[in-house]
């Protein structure tokens, strides 16, 4: 029989040991992982006045054999504002999988269902096995949550790097060679993903050295996607915590202006050859605002030497713009979920790479 208790900072070495023994890929060296997990789990409770747990441990014979990490977000559902919990990790030791996973899942639901007011649980970015586990407890998939949008920004650079094994920047050739020739040169599997960014003389992209450079009026305009029914509220405090206090850093924020009018905020992170679009927040009511900000994000990624561009389904409206622009969509073999309560599932959720724990 396992014993359960809440996570404390002193438990992190044992959690890391469990992850290593379970072949759980963190993608980080130990020093950065310790800083990152403290930030995600122990730093996110600032969005609620209650003393919220940072995670749950299962122990047998004095050893940690199960771990779930809890990270919190400001959340909206219709007109309701609340705190939501993102289940960032669920790790069970290989020798104890099965009933222990079921018991931990049941306990997690009970913890947050018993709170007043209750806290919605967002179970995101899990594998197919974990998804089936959550389905047993009534999980409902968020529409589009299995989709990732992708574009190949620089086929010439990709072709040259494959042939020469070199990273010599040749991306400028993509804009000098005709699009028809670029497509002719690219292998068949890449053709439908090719998207050469375009520029517009009336669009200005300004990199923000500090996220606080946005004015109060600009913050208010972009905080909640108007066409979304539920999702994370992109408040000033949340964006600062999520991106600019994150020990992994590497995030870049850009203010987009169209005809000298503030149109939106874009947050990118370039890792290797890929630019990840973390946030695309636009001012409602501006004609072609979504298209303008997406094109600015694509062009900025291209100028910063990204070969690939990837984005999660930020809102249904953004997905429509991505599809119209020619981005290719890929599907996972499993769905991600709004976990609890199931009646919070809806047809228009807002989510992005920023809602996940990593890339």
Q: Please compute the radius of gyration using only Cα atoms.
A: 21 Å
Task: Give the overall silhouette.
Answer: globular
Helix run count? 12
| Main structural class | alpha+beta
**Helical fraction:** 25-40%
**Helix and strand sequence:** EHHEEEHEHEEHHHHEHEHEEEHEHEEE
End-to-end distance? 36 Å
Largest sheet: 9 strands, mixed
The average pLDDT is 81
Task: Give me the count of strands.
Answer: 16
Low-pLDDT windows of residues: none
Beta content comes to 25-35%
Features:
359 residues; alpha+beta; 12 helices; 9-stranded mixed beta sheet; 7-stranded mixed beta sheet; globular
What's a quick, concise take on this entry?
By secondary structure, the protein is α+β, with helices and mostly antiparallel strands.
If you had to describe this structure to a student in words, what would you say it looks like?
- This protein starts with a strand and ends in a 9-residue tail after the last strand.
- The protein is globular and about 65 Å long.
- The strands form two sheets. Strands 1, 2, 3, 4, 5, 6, 9, 15 and 16 form a nine-stranded mixed beta sheet that branches.
- The relative contact order is 0.16.
- It is α+β, with helices and mostly antiparallel strands and 359 residues long.
- The chain has helices spanning 12-21, 30-42, 99-113, 128-135, 155-164, 172-176, 179-185, 188-191, 216-222, 236-244, 289-303, 316-325, and strands at 3-6, 55-60, 63-77, 80-92, 121-123, 140-141, 147-152, 203-208, 230-232, 251-258, 261-271, 274-282, 308-312, 328-331, 337-340, 349-350.
- It has twelve helices and 16 strands.
């Amino acid at each position: 029989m396992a014993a359960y208790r809440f996570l404390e900072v002193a438990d992190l070495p044992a959690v890391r040991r469990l992850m290593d023994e379970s072949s759980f890929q963190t993608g980080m060296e130990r020093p950065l992982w310790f800083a990152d997990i403290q930030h995600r789990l122990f730093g996110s409770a600032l969005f609620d006045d209650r003393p919220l747990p940072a995670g749950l441990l299962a122990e047998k014979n004095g050893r940690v054999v199960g771990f779930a990490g809890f990270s919190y977000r400001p959340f909206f559902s219709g007109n309701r504002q609340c705190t939501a919990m993102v289940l960032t990790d669920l790790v069970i030791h290989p020798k104890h999988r099965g009933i222990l996973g079921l018991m931990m899942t049941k306990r997690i639901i009970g913890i947050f269902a018993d709170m007043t007011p209750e806290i919605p649980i967002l179970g995101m970015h899990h594998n197919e096995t974990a998804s089936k586990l959550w389905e047993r407890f009534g999980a409902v998939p968020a529409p589009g949550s299995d989709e990732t949008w992708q574009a190949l920004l620089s086929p010439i650079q990709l072709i040259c790097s494959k042939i020469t094994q070199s990273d010599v920047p040749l991306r400028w050739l993509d804009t000098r060679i005709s699009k028809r020739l670029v497509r002719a040169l690219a292998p068949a599997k890449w053709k439908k993903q090719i998207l050469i960014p375009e520029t517009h003389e009336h669009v200005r992209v300004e990199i923000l050295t500090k996220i606080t450079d946005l004015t109060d009026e600009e913050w208010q305009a972009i905080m909640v996607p108007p066409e979304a029914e539920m999702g994370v509220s992109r408040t000033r405090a949340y964006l600062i915590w999520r991106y600019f206090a994150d020990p992994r850093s590497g995030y870049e924020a850009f203010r987009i202006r169209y005809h000298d009018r503030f149109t939106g905020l874009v947050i990118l992170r370039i890792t290797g050859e890929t630019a990840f679009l973390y946030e695309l927040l636009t001012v409602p009511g501006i004609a072609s605002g979504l298209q303008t900000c997406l094109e600015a994000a694509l062009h900025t990624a291209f100028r910063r030497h990204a070969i690939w561009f990837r984005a999660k389904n930020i809102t249904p409206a953004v997905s429509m713009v991505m599809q119209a622009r020619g981005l290719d969509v890929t599907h996972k073999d499993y769905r991600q979920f709004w976990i609890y309560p199931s009646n919070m599932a809806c047809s228009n959720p807002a989510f992005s790479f920023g809602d996940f724990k990593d890339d």
